[in-house]
Write a structure and sequence with these properties.
Elements (H helix, E strand, L loop, with lengths): L7 H13 L4 H13 L4 H5 L7 H7 L10 H19 L3
Helix pairs in contact: 1-5
């Protein structure tokens, strides 16, 4: 989940992960390694400035999925991810 990139495809995939119940201890450990080994501060990765998705969505992503998705939905998914991820990371 390279959130510094914020590509529409990454955000779409996150929705699948959130809905599928795949957020387990192995994924948590992998995500923590990503955070710790990144060159940017963890606080920036967990609270990034939202990147404009409209152009990238139209040029690189629109029509690529079997299930239709809008840029508005992707923005909601991105927002929801950050409200979900912090409690998930602190779960024992």
């Amino acid at each position: 989940m390279p959130w510094d990139r914020q590509h529409p495809r990454d955000i779409f995939d996150v929705e699948y992960i959130l809905q599928s119940g795949a957020m387990d201890d192995r994924l948590r450990a992998a995500f923590l390694v990503y955070l710790i080994s990144h060159n940017r501060p963890i606080s920036e990765l967990l609270s990034p400035n939202a990147k404009e998705l409209d152009r990238e969505f139209v040029v690189e992503f629109d029509g690529m999925t079997r299930e239709p998705v809008t840029v508005e939905q992707l923005n909601e998914i991105r927002t929801g991810f950050f409200s979900t991820i912090l409690p998930w990371l602190t779960t024992e």
